[in-house]
Every structure is written in C-alpha cells, then in structure tokens.
Amino acid sequence: VTQKQKIIIAENVCCAVNSVHNAGQICGDLNPQNIEINAQTARITLVDTDSYHIKEKYTGQTYRCEVGIPEYIAPELQQKMQEGINLQNAALPTYTENTDNFALAIHIFALLMNGCHPFACAVNDSNAKNGKESISPPQPNENICSGRMVFFKQEDNLKIPVYAHDINSF
C-alpha cells in the first residue's frame, strides 16, 4: 500500500467516524478489530457496533460501551478508571467524541508510521552496552496515562521503535 493510498484510507476512516458522530452516537471501543479496510478500494466498514456508546435520541437513555482496549483509550477516561472504577460503573460521560478522536488519531498515526503506535517506545540499546540492567519499555497504555511520547520528547533510556518511519517524513 502506497503512502497516497494510506492517506485515502485515513480520510475514509475519519469520514466513517464522523458519520457515527453526525448520527449523535459514539464509537466507544474504536480498536483495530472494529475497523475493516479494503486495501484495494480504501472502503472502510466499522464493525462490532454492539460495543458502541449509544444515547437514545428521545429518552436520553445511555447504553454505555463497557469494553475497551487500553492502548486506544484516552487518558482522561483511563484516569476515571482507578480504584475499582471501570467502564461498567464509571460516572458518565465515559466515551465521547473526544475519546473517539483520540483513538482515531492513534489509528491514523499507526497507519502512516508502519504500524507503530504513537505511544510505543523501545529500550535504548546504549544502556545495555553501559552494563546497566536490562529493562522493559513501558507499554503504550502506561505512556498514554503518563503523557510519554518518545516521537516528540526524548528520554535517556527510551527511543523510537526501529520499525517506525522517521517522524519527519510527515
């Protein structure tokens, strides 16, 4: 898939999510398994709508999305989910257009950056050469909560994953 095709796919994903929002609804659990892409036509199909966050137009009743993959959940929602609070019992609103847009931005970034999650990182190899103890890099959901994003702010012991495109390619 060429970069031009990826941009068309990104535009179409944006249009699909916007259509859901224009209908007054929220995607909620907007993860890769819920977006089908036809690479030949760039056609997008949003699936798994049973995990949408639905607000009934006439009664105002909310049918909340009770699931989500942490790597796609916005930090403000993750901050709500502490000390026994989860997506089933967190105070509403939980998922919003803004949380959908956060997940959407992750998808677009990954699409254009060779599949790399924007909050992914790798351990800096120079630490091992200096005899320092081996460490595991923080996971994307930890980085989302802490605001750590090595693509835009360098950290001594962490680096951009080797499989990611150069951020300057944008």
Structural features, described:
By secondary structure, this protein is of the alpha+beta class. The model has no long low-confidence stretch (mean pLDDT 91). Helix content is 31%, strand content 9%. A hairpin with a 6-residue loop joins strand 3 and strand 4. The two termini are 16 Å apart. It is built from five helices and six strands. It has a two-stranded antiparallel ribbon. Strands 3-4 form a two-stranded antiparallel sheet. Helix 1 runs antiparallel to helix 3.
Give descriptors for this structure.
170 residues; two-stranded antiparallel ribbon; flat
Strand order, sheet with most strands:
1-2
Q: What integer value in Å does the Rg equal?
A: 18 Å
Our estimate of the beta-strand percent is 5-15%
Taken in chain order, the helices and strands follow as HEEEEHHEHHE
Number of helical stretches of at least 4 residues: 5
Low-confidence stretches: none
Fraction of residues in helix: 25-40%
Largest sheet: 2 strands, antiparallel
Q: State the end-to-end distance.
A: 16 Å
Shape summary? flat
Number of strands: 6
Rounded mean pLDDT is 91
Structural class: alpha+beta
Give the helix/strand layout:
Layout: H1 3-22, E1 35-38, E2 43-46, E3 54-55, E4 62-63, H2 75-80, H3 97-112, E5 122-123, H4 126-129, H5 140-146, E6 158-159
Antiparallel strand pairs: 1-2, 3-4, 5-6
Helix pairs in contact: 1-3
Condensed summary:
This protein has five helices and six strands. With 170 residues, it is an alpha+beta fold.
